[in-house]
Write a structure and sequence with these properties.
single chain, 143 residues, alpha+beta, Beta-lactamase Inhibitory Protein, Chain:B, domain 1, five-stranded antiparallel sheet, 3 helices, 5 strands, 26% helix, 38% strand
Length: 143
């Protein structure tokens, strides 16, 4: 009777040995201090103020000029001059929550990405023109 059960016991041990799981969180960038957002005043704060409060941005860019058939050539040139000089600072903090479970040939993998993003738009004289803020990560009040 034990001889017939031996292959099943061996198969069960192999299945247990070939099972694995993992849970982890990877963080990218520096957390954005939302309490500093009140310091940014549209039309008043400058690039230097933003750099002082938030540090160097994750990325920055100039806005592209999108030509339109409805605009006259003169209006298009004025728009291009204004938008080409506009700068955007992008601050991003991201958390990737991952977990997986594997048994023999079956694998279940889940990934959930949360990000906080702050975008600060500047006019040609480096004064804040617009601020966009989106928060997805949970607040950590324990720190």
């Amino acid at each position: 009777m034990l001889r017939g059960a031996l292959p099943w016991i061996l198969a069960l041990h192999c299945a247990v040995l070939l099972t694995s799981c993992a849970i982890g969180t990877q963080r990218f960038g520096q957390p954005i201090d939302a309490s500093q957002l009140a310091n940014i005043q549209i039309g008043v704060s400058t690039k230097a103020d933003v750099l002082r409060d938030f540090g160097p941005p994750t990325s920055y860019a100039s806005l592209p000029v999108v030509p339109s058939e409805a605009l006259s050539a003169l209006a298009e040139e004025a728009l291009a001059a204004t938008e080409a000089a506009t700068r955007v600072f992008v601050y991003e903090y991201r958390e990737d929550h991952e977990n997986f479970f594997t048994v023999l040939l079956y694998t279940r993998f889940r990934r959930h990405v949360l990000s906080d993003r702050l975008m600060v738009f500047f006019d040609p004289s480096d004064v804040v023109q617009y601020v966009a803020w989106a928060k997805q990560t949970p607040s950590d009040d324990s720190e």
